[in-house]
Design goal:
- The chain has about 425 residues and is mainly alpha-helical.
- The protein has 20 helices and no strands.
- Helix 4 packs parallel to helix 12 and helix 17 runs antiparallel to helix 20.
């Protein structure tokens, strides 16, 4: 019945049904086809994963990100990044990259990052003489930094499926995230010289840098506070997420003084919608996982891979190839929830560290966010830049090289995910 479920899921996706509902309907048809399956079991499998205490962190991190990103914080962060790297060749592209890194420590969401950063920087880059497709390309690719730097929503989802430590996964994502920042910034610098992109001619005098740094420090401090609290065992990820909301409220009310009641209500509603979407996908993915487990698909696939491929590095390549294909068609969060049970079994069989696997999956599937035909950040950035998706895709090749290089390092050099 697994094949029936997959065919049904593909048909429903082509029809445009949201992925959560497509998963639930196709898995339910498969379970009914198995026969002798009480409806109570189906209902239990839908609601069972939602009882995980760690999931409480997701809405709070989403809310803290919304609170931080809708005020004047964005202007302060971009101002800081501009003073830091804007004077270099391809500087606005580097501002985009560093801005994504700073926003990533606040939002944990690539889609939110692409929307916020793209809305501010793409029009600015275009006015300064940057080609709109290039501006959209760097925005689409740099936004995936958000899913590696704490607080990363995809890493939290992987933790719930694999029973790994959220704190350990957050720590493991820091170095790959920083490598991605450096690689993308270097790519922008190189492309700036090759294409003779305009300079900003900003004077990086110490007083101006000091002023923008002073304005940005409260926001920049959030990811560092998250890391310290988790690393030292002062608070659990769920407690940290609640503290992050409190911290964001204090910043908006007492320091930046730009939080209005309408803005707060809007942030709450956006958080409710986003959380609802994530929870539906989690519930649906558990039902699909039950169908796969019922027919012993993870173990059978693992045994097949171990039989056909003799070396662990070959199996790691197989997993990466499979994830790249899936990531092109299925959203990052859903893909992690669907593939993690399968790949955890394979990782255990070859001795691959599960924390390393989590970071590897996140980077790999995040590449799908800016890859046609369904790349979410690619479409968002293209819409903001008002250019064709194909034109943006042609500008992405240097950023694909950077992302692939970091992916290979994470896949085959385990120390990079130990911090």
């Amino acid at each position: 019945m697994t094949m029936v479920m997959l065919i049904g899921f593909a048909i429903l996706m082509v029809m445009g049904l949201p992925i959560g509902y497509a998963l639930i309907f196709s898995a339910t048809v498969a379970l009914v086809g198995i026969g002798d399956m009480p409806t109570t079991v189906i209902l239990l499998k839908v609601f069972q994963p939602l009882q995980n205490f760690v999931l409480i962190a997701i809405p709070f991190f989403i809310l803290s990100g919304a609170l931080m990103m809708t005020g004047s914080l964005g202007q302060h962060l971009i101002g800081f990044a501009t003073r830091l790297v804007g004077r270099f060749r391809g500087g606005l592209g580097q501002v985009n990259v560093f801005g994504s890194a700073l926003f990533g420590g606040v939002s944990g969401s690539a889609v939110a990052d692409a929307s916020a950063i793209g809305g501010m920087l793409i029009p600015w880059m275009t006015r300064e003489g940057y080609p709109p497709p290039f501006s959209a390309a760097i925005t689409a690719s740099s936004s995936i930094i958000s899913v590696l730097i704490p607080p990363s929503i995809p890493l939290i989802l992987y933790a719930t499926v694999s029973n790994q430590s959220v704190a350990g996964l957050f720590m493991a994502g820091i170095i790959p995230g920083l490598l991605l920042v450096i690689g993308l910034a270097v790519a922008c610098w190189i492309m700036g010289y090759l294409r003779d992109l305009p300079l900003l001619h900003k004077d990086p005098d110490a007083p101006s840098i000091g002023r923008v740094l002073l304005n940005a420090v409260p926001a920049i401090s959030l990811p560092f506070l998250i890391v310290v609290l988790l690393r030292m065992g002062i608070a659990t990820p769920t407690e940290v997420s609640v503290l992050a909301v409190g911290y964001a409220l204090v910043l908006r009310v007492a320091i930046y003084r730009d939080l209005t009641m309408n803005s707060f209500v809007s942030n709450l509603l956006a958080t409710l919608v986003t959380t609802g979407v994530v929870m539906v996908v989690i519930a649906a993915s558990n039902l699909v996982g039950y169908v796969l487990a019922f027919e012993n698909i993870p173990n059978r696939f693992s045994e097949w891979a171990m039989t056909v491929f003799s070396d662990p590095w070959q199996i790691i390549l197989l997993m990466n190839f499979a994830m790249l294909i899936v990531g092109m068609f299925i959203d990052l969060s859903a893909a992690i929830l669907l593939l993690a049970p399968l790949f955890v079994t394979m990782a255990n069989a070859i001795g691959l560290n599960l924390t390393q696997l989590g970071v590897m999956m996140t980077i790999n599937l995040a590449i799908g966010l800016f890859t046609p035909p369904v790349g979410t950040t690619l479409f968002i950035s293209s819409a903001i830049a008002k250019v064709n998706v194909g034109a943006v895709a042609r500008e992405l090749w240097p950023f694909y090289l950077v992302a692939a290089s970091v992916l290979l390092l994470v896949s085959f050099y385990p120390p990079i995910t130990t911090l």
